[in-house]
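Dear all,

This email documents one entry for the complex benchmark we are building for the journal club exercise. For each entry we list the sequence lines for every component of the assembly. Then comes the predicted three-dimensional structure of the complex as a token string, followed by one or two observations. Please use this as the template for your own entries, and keep the labels exactly as they appear.
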Amino acid sequence: MSAAFVAQNLTGHKILGLATAAVLYLICLSGTATVFYIDMERWETANLPEVTEFRPEIVAAAIGDARSHLTKDVTSINVFTPTKDYPRLNVQVGEETRVYDAQGHYAGRGAHPATEALTELHYYLHLPSSFGMIVVSIGGVAMLALILGGLLAHPRILKDAFLWRLNGTPRTNRADLHNRIGVWASPFHIIIALTGAVIGLSQIFLFVSAMTFNKGDITAAFAPLYPDIATKAHEGQMSGDAIIKALTTLRREHPDAHPNYIGLNNAGTDHESLSVSAEIDERLVYGDNWEFDGKGNMAGTLHISDGAAGQQVFASLYRLHFGNFGGIWVRWAYVLLGAGLCLICTTGMDIWLLKSAQKGRPYPRLHKLWTAFVWGAPTALALATLTTLTIAAPFVPVFWGLTTVFSLAGLLAASQSFLSRIGRYVFAGSLLALVTGHMLRFGAASFSQTALGLNLTLVILAAITAGLTWRQTRKASSSL
Amino acid sequence: MIAVPFAGSLLSLLGLTAIFLTWRRKGVRDGLWRFGLPVGWALLCLGLATWMASTNPDQGLALGSVLIMMLAGAILAWQGLRLAGKPAKTQIERESAADTVALGKGYWGRFTIRLLGSLIIVPVVSVMLGILWQAYMPVSAADRLVGAAIATIFIMGAALTWQLASRRPYRTFGVLTGVSAITAALVYLPLAMGT
């Protein structure tokens, strides 16, 4: 690689990185936290019962109860059935989520506004959903370009494979960290950027494709992936016995399929039918879909798990993006790799700021603003969750308000290094406050199997953050 | 069966160890060390293949890749902590020619064309090439559609890198615009003529 080629790519990498650093950091930060969204949903409703076993009878009972909440405008009942990773029986009717116990009896409302707001931050940055999703997806494309440009701008990629000069200057330290994580975790970064961008921008591509090949008919353009299965017309409502028959048939004919979603289509009308989505053992695809008519007879399957390669790849994007395969240890690995991605965003900006300062062009205010934002955003996430959980405050204004206040308050700090230390301590404190708030709200349920894992994780994260900061401060003061 | 994933993990660990030990010799690769890197990478590939055989290939590949990245991260962390207490030997900071870029003549023109290229031409050319893929790839309809969507994103990333890194952004802008026009002609002219 010639020096000019490397320099060109480094310039492109720098321009794009500086332009997108803050947005990418927010997307990566919220994405890392979102990996645990199924655990967070349970944690946020820790007082509600868990259901460990899937039984057709309790699903039929729950659907029967939810029917009374149908209105003219609400014509579907969505059931999220208990799985190994999510032992809950949730039924969604319109905007309401109703939780049922192991006997199929109603147990309470399953609203989880903080988890919802967190995932919406990752999906849309709290912008209007379609526009926000496009913005986030463009972030995915930018990330892909940054990875490509970064790799091309790194001619010593193999020679420096494990070089990390923690004993170097702050700039070499950050540059090594940025480059090493960037190289070794690049498969993860590429997959995250690619799947995220495809999930979001596929709507635009599908629109252009439909305009080009299907006279604007989006459903027809999508048909190769999700073919329409005609179900037989049926007079009257689908009975509980018909629902049990459908689910028993599926269990008998596909013992490796574990239902995770059941939809009662056209609920309350005289042509009801059932859609069942089920996870398949040891597969990356999110599952397969089966359709049943109003009498519980199988009408067909979408063949997502054994159809064309394109169908299988498309159905694998979501689980690949969120690490929703292989159980809890894969989710933990995704959290660590996601934290690495956040570090790449922050160190990238740091490298540029330190390099500018070394060249006699320091940006002390920008450096303080950036540091305050980096620690302020996760602190705001924790505090917005806390206020939503304890006093039902709206998450979105609290989060954005606190992020803005923390970032601007950073400008008042004496120095960037002081701000960095304080920021970490405040972040650690916000995590402990969140755990305390959870215990106050849920009492003994905070120590139940449902919530203990996440609460312990938050305490350990707070301890590590505070401990490392304390150690770093002590070292710095002893070397003076 | 736990033995096969365990073997895959062991092979991955051995592969990374071989690469790490070879790297630590800092270019002195005499005797058997000459084979350190190829053997290391081969062991990593073998580890991935073993993981793919242990379950379905799609999930096995994903699990094996995650494991390798975590092991590499662990080696990096250990390496970093090992050196943390030691005094710095060298503090060489490689300067890049990129730092010498200054606000010279025509800077704002190049800036504007890079911006327009990134925001307009890059998305247009990538979507057009994706549509071309969907129109002509000789595979099933589902494979064409998904292949085109994924290709669009890859092309967008590559074109964005090129537009931003190019020393001649006007020429890059022109090339990308030309490719968009040719691609559009290849897709829409046959459709307009009903062929």
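Observations: Chain B has two domains: 3-82, 107-192. Confidence is low (pLDDT under 50) at residues 90-100 of chain B.
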